[in-house]
Specification:
With about 190 residues, this protein is an alpha+beta fold. Helices cover about 35% and strands about 15% of the residues.
């Protein structure tokens, strides 16, 4: 929701500042590689103290808003905010994030409204983000929304049909139970609450 507001995709004000970061294990691995690169052989010298790198130092509140941190290995593409010491998800990544955690984006109904209003403008960036996505369910969710919900006819979008599969309980809105109606084309429950 924070990135959605920053890009002007929503007029809602998020209750929290939403941040995404890699899981602790990934950060520890990066920190270890950074220490080895900076200090090399000195790491094994007990006579030298090397201050440890912290996994996280985020405050619990920023500008009187709570900080809501999501740790995931699928943190996606980002951009540096000009003139600030911050990063923000790319616009395509923001649309992809809406599919993974709609509850952090105003709920799936709001996500569908935002896609309906803004997806045609950012279609190229959305397609690039979805093409590079690691999880097939993201391609199915994006494909369903663009194809059946928004009637966007596009060869890239239709190529994601290869990821639709029978069985299991694939749902448009994660965290909600499988329910009718069902898209037989995309093989996904459109279980929006």
């Amino acid at each position: 929701m924070s990135a959605m507001q920053r890009y002007g995709l929503t007029n809602r004000r998020p209750e929290a500042l939403f941040i995404t970061s890699p899981p602790d294990a990934v950060v520890r691995k990066w920190n270890k590689a950074l220490l080895e690169d900076r200090f090399g052989k000195e790491l094994n010298n007990d006579d030298i103290y090397i201050e440890p790198l912290f996994l996280t130092h985020h405050p619990t509140r920023v500008r009187r808003r709570a900080v809501d941190q999501l740790k995931t290995k699928f943190y996606g593409e980002w951009r540096k905010v000009r003139g600030e010491d911050q990063r923000i998800a790319s616009i395509g990544q923001v649309f992809l994030d809406m599919l993974e955690t709609p509850q952090r984006c105003g709920g799936m109904r709001h996500v569908l409204e935002v896609w309906g209003e803004h997806a045609p403008k950012y279609l190229k960036q959305i397609i690039n983000a979805v093409e590079g996505a690691d999880r097939p369910i993201w391609k199915v969710r994006a494909g369903y929304i663009l194809d059946e919900h928004l009637n966007v006819a596009n060869d890239h979008v239709l190529s994601w049909l290869q990821y639709a599969q029978r069985g299991g309980s694939r749902v448009l809105e994660p965290g909600r139970s499988y329910a009718e109606p069902f898209s037989s084309k995309w093989m996904i429950s459109t279980n929006v609450g």
